[in-house]
Amino acid sequence: MKSTTRLFTLATGLAAATTAAAAYLTTRYWHQVLPNRLYRKAQLALAAKGPITGGWIDQTPRAGYVANHLVASYHGGLTVMQAGQPVTYEFDIAETGAITYLARLTA
Predict the structure, then answer these.
(1) Predicted model pTM
(2) pLDDT, tens digit, 9 for 90 and up, residues 61-103
(3) What is the rounded CA–CA span in Å between residue 92 and residue 90?
(4) Among the residues of 1-107, which ranges form H helices?
(5) Is 72 helix (H, G, I), strand (E, B) or coil?
């Protein structure tokens, strides 16, 4: 009986550790890895407009649509130098890398 109890305790502990590791890695991917990767894609997309001097991206995904499909989307902004003046752009980028919204905020 004792070896069965120990084996069950070990299996339960292993399952709990695996579940916790999976939850941590999933959260890290959706709230750190993916937004940073998408931010770099947005930078590359706007680099043609001029040198980028600053920017940000929200690390929390929100709902967005690409071709009528619900996807995770991230909101951000970039400041680009154009004709010696800083110009701020606001964007939404889907988990697929598609920019779903782009607006120039400064004149």
Answers:
(1) 0.79
(2) 999 888 888 999 999 999 999 999 999 999 999 999 999 999 9
(3) 7
(4) 2-28, 34-46
(5) strand
Q: Which two tokens stand for residue 2?
A: 């004792």
Nearest to 66 by CA among 46, 27, 38: 38
Say how far apart CA 106 and CA 36 lie, in whole Å.
Answer: 24
Amino acid at 90: E
Tokens, residue 48: 């043609």
Helix or strand holding residue 106 (H, E): none
Query: How far is the first Cα of the chain from the last one, in angstroms, to the nearest whole number?
Result: 77
CB atoms within 10 A of CB 58: 15
Give the side-chain half-sphere CA count within 13 A for 23: 6
Integer Cα distance of 66 and 73 in angstroms: 9
Cα three-residue angle 90-70-76, rounded to 5 degrees: 15
Helix (H, G, I), strand (E, B) or coil at 1: coil
**Backbone dihedral region for residue 42 (phi beyond 0: left; psi -120 to 50: alpha; all else: beta):** alpha
